[in-house]
Amino acid sequence: MDITLLETQFQTWKGCPLSEKANPVFGEGHFSASVMFIGEAPGEQEDKLGRPFVGAAGKFLDELLSSINLKREDVYITNVVKYRPPANRDPTDLEKDQCMPWLKLQIALIKPHVIVPLGRHALGHFLSKVTISNAHGKAHRLTDSVTVFPICHPAAALHNGGLRQALYDDFKALGEFLKTVN
Ligand code: URA
User: Fold this and answer.
1) Overall number of domains in the chain
2) Can you give the CATH number for the domain in which 126 is found?
3) In whole angstroms, what is the distance from residue 89 CA to residue 43 CA?
4) Radius of gyration, CA atoms only, the chain
5) What number is the average pLDDT over the span 33-61?
6) Ligand 1: distance of its center to the CA of 181 in Å?
7) Which of 10, 79, 98, 166 could form a disulfide with 16 if both were Cys (CB 3.0 to 4.6 A apart)?
8) In testing the pocket of ligand 1, which one of 48, 53, 77, 121 has its CB within 8 Å of the most ligand atoms?
9) What does the DSSP assignment read for 17-41?
10) Number of Cα atoms under 13 Å in the Cβ half of residue 2
11) Is there a domain that residue 14 lies in?
12) Which atom of ligand 1 is nearest to the CA of 79?
């Protein structure tokens, strides 16, 4: 199976009640990317356009990617939860669980070597015993072939100038780490 077929199957899925009031946002990018970025859930712009990280947080993510010479097309970008929660509230554990099979299939097909959870919701799925404030900006080996490199959610930095620099620093560390992979 390839990821295009998976996305086609996903478009008609109704297994998460958020789908009653929101549009599906599956993910996009390179189909065999070695780096996969995983956010929390779509926001308003993402819901409108059906694409991940295309609002204000997405613009900042683009800047961060370009700071380490990466383009969106080089990586794969998706979210844990595939539909926008009402008024951008935090996704519930149930919603994360309901959407999780899709993320697992995306990972199984794309086979990234480096998974970058953006924020605590995505981090929790991969490393349950750490917090984002302790784990961000560092490589955590998950298996022989997969490393998790958590980074704070770019949306958090939109209202907190100090965090902006911290995100640039984490991306710099990610860029250095990527030079050691492959
Ligand atoms: N925040 C997320 O976590 N994901 C998006 O796609 C956009 C904003």
Assistant:
1) 1
2) 3.40.470.10
3) 9
4) 15
5) 98
6) 26
7) 98
8) 53
9) GGGGTS-----EE-TT-SEEEEES-
10) 4
11) no
12) 4
**What's the rounded Cα separation, in Å, for the pair 109 and 21?**
28
pLDDT mean over 116-125: 97
CA distance 77 to 160: 23
DSSP state of 64: H
The neighbour count for residue 147, using CB atoms within 10 Å, is: 20
168 inside domain: yes
Full domain range(s) for residue 124: 24-181
CB atoms within 10 A of CB 56: 14
- 66: part of which helix (H) or strand (E)? helix 56-67
- Which pLDDT score is estimated for 159? 86
Q: What is the 3-state secondary structure (H, E, C) of 82-135?
A: CCCCHHHCCCCHHHHHHHHHHHHHHHHHHCCCEEEEECHHHHHHHCCCCCHHHH
Q: Say how many Å lie between the CA of residue 176 and the centre of ligand 1.
A: 25
Q: What is the mean pLDDT of the chain?
A: 97
Cβ < 6 A, ligand 1 pocket: 39-43, 46, 52-53, 55, 57-58, 79, 155
